[in-house]
Amino acid sequence: MLVVLWPANAAAEEPRVAYWLHCAGCHGLEGHGAPPEVPSLIDEPGRIVQLPGGREYMIAIPGVSQAGLDDVELAKVLNYMMREFSPRTLPAEFKPFSAEEVGRYRVETLIDPLLRREQLLSGAAD
């Protein structure tokens, strides 16, 4: 059994701690996931955000869009995930997610995120 302890002064608002609390249950502490149902976060998000519709996809994934975080916190977690797990594939011109962008796209939760991901990666996204 893995037990994670963080300092008592580590606030849940810190992106790393928020990731642990809201994302690591499925994606794991190191972002490896359980492919194909729970995709790995290693390098893949950096590739996806470069695709047309990729940023919107990253926000509309059910676990993201429905996370119990406000738009500011969620943007911070997404940016943390990009820097932490996709530094090799993140484009140099990557613009961090903003709270406004998160608020705009999280209202459209994907019904089938795996299908949408496949479409994005194959270039078949509409």
What would you say this structure looks like, in words?
The chain has helices at 15-22, 24-27, 44-48, 54-60, 62-65, 71-85, 99-105, 113-122. It is globular, with a radius of gyration of 14 Å. Helix 1 packs across helix 6 and helix 6 crosses helix 7. It is mostly helical and 126 residues long. The protein has a single domain (15-122), classed as Orthogonal Bundle (Cytochrome Bc1 Complex, Chain D, domain 2), CATH 1.10.760.10. The protein is built from eight helices and no strands. Helix content is 48%, strand content 0%. The longest helix is centred in the middle third of the chain and has 15 residues, at 71-85.
Short descriptors:
single chain; 126 residues; Cytochrome Bc1 Complex, Chain D, domain 2; 8 helices
Number of domains: 1
Query: What can be said about the biggest beta sheet?
Result: none
Q: Helical element count?
A: 8
List low-confidence stretches. none
Total beta strands: 0
Residues in β-strands, percent: under 5%
Instruction: Give helix % range.
Output: 40-55%
